[in-house]
Amino acid sequence: MKTINVLHITAHLGGGIGKALCGLVSRSSVDPRIKHSIVCLEKPEKAQFLEKIVAHGCEVVVAPSHGHFVELIQHADIVQLEWWGHPASIAALCGGPLPRMRLLVWNHISGLHTPIIPRRLMESAHRCIFTTPCSYGTEEVLQLSSMSRSQLDVVHSAGGFEGLDLPERRTDESLVAGYLGSLNFAKLHPRYVEFLAAVRIPGFRVRMIGDITNRSTLEKQCSQAGRPGMLEFSGYTTDVASELASINVMPYILNPRHYGTSENALLEAMAMAVVPVVFNNPAESCLVTHGKTGLIVKNPEELGAAIESLANNPGERRRIALDAAKAVRCCFAVEKMIDAFNIHYHTLQTSEKASIPFGEIFGRTPDEWFLAIQRHPEIFTNGKHLGTMDKYSLPGLFERTKGSVFHYYSYFSENHQLKIWVDKLKHFETNGDIQYNV
After folding, report:
1. Helix and strand counts by DSSP (H, E) for the chain
2. Closest to 116 (Cα-Cα) out of 367, 363, 375
3. How far is it, in rounded angstroms, from Cα 131 to Cα 252?
4. Strand ranges in 84-210 using DSSP code E only, listed in sequence order
5. Percent of the chain as helix, strand, coil, to the nearest 5
6. pLDDT tier at 430 (50, 70, 90 boundaries)?
7. How confident is the model at residue 102 (pLDDT cuts 50, 70, 90)?
8. What mean pLDDT is reported for the chain?
9. pLDDT digits (tens, 9 = 90+) for 361-400
């Protein structure tokens, strides 16, 4: 019985990617012919998932030299690139000649907006796997040949729901709303407070679980809307299960230009029988079935009506909650993810290894690498005026991570072009207006 050695290349093991890889390697007995190992390009800030992955018998190599990186690829039957546009990943792939490989790319971003999934990367990979069906609608996928499109598939990122025991949901519960997730406006809808202010239930509050980014801005917006105290910030917690058990509705209204796919916070809430009310973004619409496992809204008025309906119809709220829990625990079971990947591994094993032209895909310098993942590189290259930008895209430019120019500059501070772009963005941040010339 021949073993198939799968080498995962990931920038880090935090958040959703850490949970997904932990789930993927956790059931080694499902197919003992598959052996996983991981190259983690950065030293993990927290050891939570690293320790679990190692405990499952998976080797993890942290920050290898280029020579060691090459050796690991040479001995791998399949190289699985965990892709979301992180600068450390591109630097490793473009840092010198790499051996021939069978490349499978698992995309942890939708690619609809920045950061994108480059067309050449999809064409060069032996398999390109999405974590959401909405990725089929990207410009790059629509440009692919029928042959390249035949190499695409969707495998949802599923880390499982360990420790999230389903709480009892009674019909006599009052509505208790909460939000779990990022408060950065590149992810959270910049008009989140406006949406919530459309709810006319006396004393309506939303408990903001964990993240306190933008707290002062959000509280100011609540005061301006005449709803001071509408958001209650609970602060960081390690006991997400207890927090989710204490709420029964989650207004999950995200920026239309967000980069997410499987949305772990949303799925965890649904698994805990919390009714999601989501904006009609592509990724969320792939996860929530309107009227069955949650509610999908298009504007503040619809959100207000949805929350009020859930408050006035506790029996219907409980039905949706239980259907949501049943659906996500089935559709996003770890075993389904593992089985899907194992089929791809066995199929790929018969393919010939190939040289992947990473330098041609991403470019030769850090500023070219950065531009390669931008949905609108012209913002940086042809003097587009930042003040005229789509207001939903603008917050993503000022992220300090998530593949922003600030993120790339933090890795490649010697790159003069990145410095120019960072300085101009900082000027815009301070003064609110600038002509964006290179």
Report:
1. 21, 13
2. 375
3. 19
4. 103-107, 127-130, 152-154, 177-180, 206-209
5. 40, 15, 40
6. confident
7. very high
8. 94
9. 999 999 999 999 999 998 898 866 676 678 899 899 999 9
Q: Which residue has the tokens 């790339």?
A: 408
CA dist 83 and 11 (Å) reads: 9
Is the pLDDT reported for residue 354 higher than 60? Answer: yes
Gap between the Cα atoms of 79 and 208, Å rounded: 39
How many angstroms separate the CA atoms of 19 and 35, rounded? Answer: 18
What pLDDT score does 387 carry?
67
Report the alpha-carbon distance of residue 350 to residue 331 in Å, rounded: 29
The whole-number average pLDDT for the span 171-175 is 94
Q: Which structure tokens are listed for 193?
A: 């407070």
Asked if residue 94 lies in contact with residue 20, where contact means CB atoms within 8 angstroms, the answer is no
For the record, the structure tokens of 374 come out as 């931008």
What torsion do the CA atoms of 108, 111, 114, 116 make, to the nearest 10 degrees? Answer: 90
Identity of the residue numbered 95: G
Strands 152-154 and 127-130: parallel
Please tell me the predicted confidence (pLDDT) of residue 34.
95
Can you tell me the distance from the alpha carbon of 205 to that of 227, in angstroms, rounded to the nearest whole number? 9
H helix runs in 188-261, sequence order: 192-197, 215-224, 240-245
Task: Identify the pLDDT of residue 384.
Answer: 65
pLDDT value of position 435: 40
CA dihedral 415, 418, 420, 421 (to 10 degrees): 180
Would the pLDDT of 433 be above 70? Answer: no
For the CA atoms of 267, 271, 277, 281, what is the dihedral angle to 10 degrees?
20
pLDDT at 195 over 60: yes
**What count of Cα atoms within 13 Å lies in the side-chain half-sphere of residue 159?**
23
pTM summary value? 0.94
Burial category of 142 from C-beta neighbours within 10 Å (exposed 0-12, middle 13-18, buried 19 and up): exposed
Q: Is the dihedral of CA 221, 302, 332, 148 positive or negative?
A: negative
- The CA–CA distances, whole Å, from 352 to 70, 295, 386, 410 equal 18, 46, 46, 37
Please, where are the H alpha helices in 125-191? Answer: 139-142, 146-149
